[in-house]
Amino acid sequence: MIITAIEPRRKSLSAIYIDGEFAVKLDTETVLSERLKIGEEIDDDRLYELIKTSDARRAKEKALWLISYRDHSEGELRQKLSKDYGEEAVDKAIEKLMELGFINDENFAKNYAESLSRKHLSQRQIQQKLRLKGIDKELSTETVEDLDLDEKQEIRALIEKKYIRKLSDEGDLRRTIAALQRRGFGYSDIKSVINEFREFDEY
Question: Can you tell me the distance from the alpha carbon of 148 to that of 6, in angstroms, rounded to the nearest whole number?
Answer without folding.
Answer: 59
